[in-house]
Write a structure and sequence with these properties.
Elements: E1 16-17, H1 58-63, E2 76-80, E3 87-89, E4 96-98, E5 105-107, E6 114-116, E7 123-125, E8 132-134, E9 141-143, E10 150-152, E11 159-161, E12 168-170, E13 177-179, E14 186-188, E15 195-197, E16 204-206, E17 213-215, E18 227-229, E19 236-239, E20 244-246, E21 253-257, E22 265-267, E23 276-280, E24 289-293, E25 300-305, E26 308-314, E27 324-327
Parallel strand pairs: 1-2, 2-4, 3-5, 4-6, 5-7, 6-8, 7-9, 8-10, 9-11, 10-12, 11-13, 12-14, 13-15, 14-16, 15-17, 16-18, 17-19, 18-20, 19-21, 20-22, 21-23, 22-26, 23-27
Antiparallel strand pairs: 24-25, 25-26
Region (Disordered): 155-225
GO cellular component, one term: extracellular region
Keywords: Secreted, Signal
């Protein structure tokens, strides 16, 4: 299911529109052509044309830089861009848009859309609906917005933002930034040193290979618990109240807000001497840190801050003060995508 027909261009049901051979707009100062709305209305169903088809000399297509705007068209669009195509926009149906070469800006519009970038640095916006976005190669910005979206960064250092809805985000190769937004999201970093932030809702985060940073602390006022798994590598995991943490292979740092209220954090594979527990504390006076071994469960160690339980560590027999550090609050801020 991972590829979902990568670079497939079959029509998706309903009317299949394509860019016509009528460039009805005037060139602007940047030599950008604008395809007007009425240029696509009379195309027979089932036609799929590429912008390359409108140049007799392939070199002209290679050198051309065009801005394509499609909107307010009924039906499901199948749009194939080409070299030098900058902007592609869908309509209200379930559209399939492929940017191919060039640094493309693609907006699916309303409907359940499938958007493909390619080898350049692309910006893909699913807009409303349950969308599927593929960044391809390059350093891509993908934004699902409203709806239950699936975002694939693939190769390159990508930025994926799910937005509203229950989203699935896959970074792939490269050092990626993933932000789930609202809803119950699933984030997977893949290879590289990735940064994952679940956002509001009960989220599942898996860092994958590499030294990753995972955050379940930005839930706002929601009481939802997150599931955070660093995977292989020396990871930094910022856990919120009620979160369940698996550090995975490597020497991991698990940070807990010492001032937060709510249910304690559970760490299922803490290894003293290898992993570190960081207590985030910004108060003027250092708190009192307590370590208690459970009398009935030898595998359970409780960590207390000023007498209040903040963490349950499993497999942490022999935990000592040297395994716990006070630190200022950590903030793995993600930059919102442009476009």
């Amino acid at each position: 299911m991972f590829l979902l027909g990568l670079f497939g261009l079959a029509a998706m049901g309903g009317a299949a529109y394509a860019i016509s051979d009528v460039f009805s707009g005037d060139e602007d100062e940047d030599n950008d052509d604008v395809i007007e709305e009425d240029a696509v209305e009379d195309i027979p169903e089932g036609n799929l044309l590429e912008i390359d088809d409108f140049f007799e000399d392939p070199a002209e297509a290679e050198d051309a830089s065009h801005e394509t705007i499609l909107s307010d068209v009924d039906g499901n669009l199948v749009i194939a861009g080409g070299p030098g195509v900058d902007n592609l926009s869908g309509a209200e149906g379930n559209d399939q848009i492929n940017g191919y070469d060039g640094g493309d800006i693609i907006d699916g519009g309303a409907g359940d859309d499938t958007l493909f970038g390619a080898d350049w640095d692309d910006t893909l916006n699913g807009n409303t609906g349950d969308d599927i976005l593929h960044g391809g190669n390059g350093h891509d910005d993908l934004s699902g917005n409203a709806g239950d979206d699936i975002l694939y960064g693939h190769a390159g250092d990508d930025q994926l933002v799910g937005g509203e809805g229950d989203d699935d985000l896959y970074g792939g190769q490269g050092n990626d930034n993933l932000a789930g937004g609202e809803g119950e999201d699933a984030l997977q970093g893949g290879d590289g040193e990735d940064m994952l932030a679940g956002g509001a809702g009960e989220d599942t985060l898996f860092g994958g290979d590499g030294d990753d940073t995972l955050s379940g602390q930005d839930d706002g006022d929601t009481p939802a618990s997150d599931f955070l798994n660093g995977g292989a590598g020396d990871d930094t995991i910022l856990a919120g109240a009620g979160d369940v943490v698996t550090g995975g292979q490597g020497a991991d740092q698990i940070a807990i807000d010492g001032t937060a209220t709510g249910k304690e954090v559970s760490v299922v594979d803490f290894i003293p001497g290898e992993d570190k527990l960081l207590i985030e504390w910004n108060g003027p006076d250092a708190p009192e840190i307590g370590i208690e071994q459970d009398a009935d469960n030898a595998d359970l160690t409780r960590v207390l801050v000023n007498g209040r339980e903040v963490a349950h560590l499993f497999g942490a027999q022999g935990l000592g003060p040297e395994d716990i550090q006070l630190t200022p609050g950590l903030d793995p801020t993600l930059t919102s995508p442009t476009g």
